[in-house]
Amino acid sequence: MSAQVNPELIETLEEYGVTDASTCFNCGNCTAVCNLSTESVPFPRKVIRYLQIGAKDKILQSPEPWLCYYCGDCSETCPREANPGEVMMGLRRYLTSLYDWTGLSRLFYTSKAFEIIAILVVAGLIGLAFYLFHGPMVTDRVALNVFAPNHVIEILDLIMAAVLSFFLLTNAYRMFSAIMAQPLPGEDEASVKRRKRSPLKGVPVRYYIQEGKEFVIQFITQKKFASCEKREKRIQWISHLLVMTGYSTVFLLVVVGIRWFQRDEIYPLWHPIRLLGYYATFGVLYGVSYAMIGRLKKSSTVYEHSHSTDWIFLILLWLTTFTGILIHFTRLLELPLATYYIYAIHLMIAVPMLVLEVPFAKWAHQLYRPLVLYLMKVRERAAQES
Predict the structure, then answer these.
(1) Contact yes or no for 360/123 (Cβ under 8 A)
(2) Are residues 218 and 347 in the same domain?
(3) What tens digit of pLDDT does each residue of 28-46 get?
(4) Residue 275 is part of which domain span?
(5) pLDDT by residue (tens digit) across 140-177?
């Protein structure tokens, strides 16, 4: 089958943080040391070779960048110091930009100024909305649902969730189309072309249903990351898992359960909503702080190279969590004005992260990775049954 070659691809990838791929001489050491690489799906070696020869279409259809959790073993043992782990990270950024039909992901990953300005614009709009439309500021007690009624916030949350879901799911479908366009074992070019024209890419819907649990398991547990037996790598997995589950928990509490989460009365200490909030706070704050300290100290290969979007993501997430903690304490201490002002600042940080990071940047990876693992299972079943 023919493949389009782009000789300038390796230069394009430099904008996404890939700087050492040209030094790789394809020895295969990275593939040999990777616990997740298999005989049927070897990586990072194969996609690095695609990158070197400019095989953009091959990279677009490759699941391998999403199968890598960047434990760093390959980079630590690379004889050429080509840093294959960071190459895979850069490829994930690049692929995210290819999946995104709006072009915003490309701008976020290739222009630090654009990302910062976009965040400031969204934050400014949220601040302006609070200035113009907030409710009465009751000062004899904390009345957050008078200042910002939770039924209004709930409607706005649901609208925002619908818009974000539209962008994220349409981008995910583009990723799905690319991954499923790979030929199945023994499949000819004519068959592949016929499959591409089908919404489900020629795979019976029952296979997608039968393998559905794979997506749920991978999304919730990130269990592939735990396969590395080294202690420091398992800590990275735990940190990653805490951030993902913690933020997913608070997202559900705020978007779906805001009428129970944002209440003027304080729940008892052992109330389920309060406990979930504490877990989410601890998970995100611990995981993000661990990653930030690691990057500052450059304590491992994984943290030696940081793209600007990595830092912006971590800072926004940390500030969102920290301001959430401040709101909790000002409510407990019965400080009305402090609660209202910090609440407005909290949303000025949290909303840009949701609106920009979820569909177009770092958070999108949390959907793409388990989705690719799920699609690989679907492809395996389709290959066995064909």
Answers:
(1) no
(2) yes
(3) 899 998 888 888 788 898 9
(4) 104-377
(5) 999 999 999 999 999 999 999 999 999 999 999 999 99
